[in-house]
Specification:
The chain is an alpha/beta fold. Helices cover 40% and strands 16% of the residues.
């Protein structure tokens, strides 16, 4: 994937187009800072220029809006990434709403969310798009399969549901209020879990169907190490295919961000 992205970026650069991603970080959350650094490093490796824009947690909504409007008008910036979550004093929906949809490399603006729902999105949310890319790469034929997603967020669960439906899967969205969860999970051919709290939820071998496909999006810290939602060692013996944490969906999410940036640059420059 990195080779293809670098080649695409190089092709644009040869035409005098320098793909540029602006990252916007508000506050000093360590996890968010790490995510932004990882995205910037990956962008640099494939030839995408990055602009690192940071605000203190005291940043006002008006200041952030002014910055985004400047980035919207800046012809040298092709992608805008506002790292989430934002401080409580800032309305996330308002901020996402004012990002130029053509520069929305996270695929989260209302405009792009609407295009996703109708099957016409070009810039798609990165984690769901990365999951589909992983399934395609590993030759998982989604059509006709029963897919369960344990997550109903606008970042993962809802957009992934639409992408799976586009591929003719039968989709069930589960969440913290779902009744008889284990019985539902046992019917899944594809099971995507994105709970992200190992203390509240752990997917174990007895909860899955034999030879099912397991995609782990959850990230938790357990005994000082990063882990997912899945009891990996036991589940992998029963599943036909499974993604690890770390090293599975995370890198693909970043790859989809870079792909969206290159796509946005290509569209903007004609």
């Amino acid at each position: 994937m990195k080779y293809r992205l670098k080649k695409a970026a190089d092709d644009l650069i040869k035409k005098g187009i320098k793909p540029c991603l602006a990252t916007v970080l508000v506050g000093d959350d360590q996890s968010s800072s790490l995510y932004v650094r990882n995205k910037q490093r990956a962008a640099s490796e494939v030839g995408i220029i990055t602009r690192d824009l940071k605000f203190p947690s005291s940043c006002t909504e008006a200041e952030l809006i002014e910055l985004i409007q400047l980035l919207n008008r800046d012809k040298q910036v092709h992608g805008i990434l506002v790292q989430l979550p934002l401080p409580q004093n800032i309305d996330r929906f308002l901020i996402l709403r004012i990002i130029d949809p053509k520069k929305d490399v996270d695929g989260l603006t209302p405009h792009n969310a609407g295009l996703l729902m109708t099957g016409n999105a070009v810039l798609k949310p990165c984690t769901p798009a990365g999951i589909i890319e992983l399934l395609d790469y590993n030759k998982v034929d989604i059509s006709g399969l029963d897919a369960i997603v344990i997550n109903r967020s606008a970042l993962v669960g809802k957009p992934l549901g639409f992408l799976l439906l586009e591929r003719d899967a039968t989709v069930t969205i589960c969440h913290s209020r779902t009744r008889s969860l284990t019985e539902k999970l046992k019917r899944a051919d594809i099971l995507v879990t994105a709970v992200g709290n190992r203390h509240d939820f752990l997917l174990t071998r007895d909860m899955i169907k034999p030879d099912s496909v397991i995609v782990d999006v959850g990230i938790s810290k357990l005994d000082g190490r990063i882990t997912g939602d899945v009891d990996f060692e036991s589940v992998k013996q029963k599943a036909s295919w499974i993604t690890p944490v770390p090293g599975g969906v995370g890198p693909m999410t970043i790859s989809m961000l870079l792909k969206n940036t290159i796509t946005a640059a290509s569209i903007e420059e004609g």
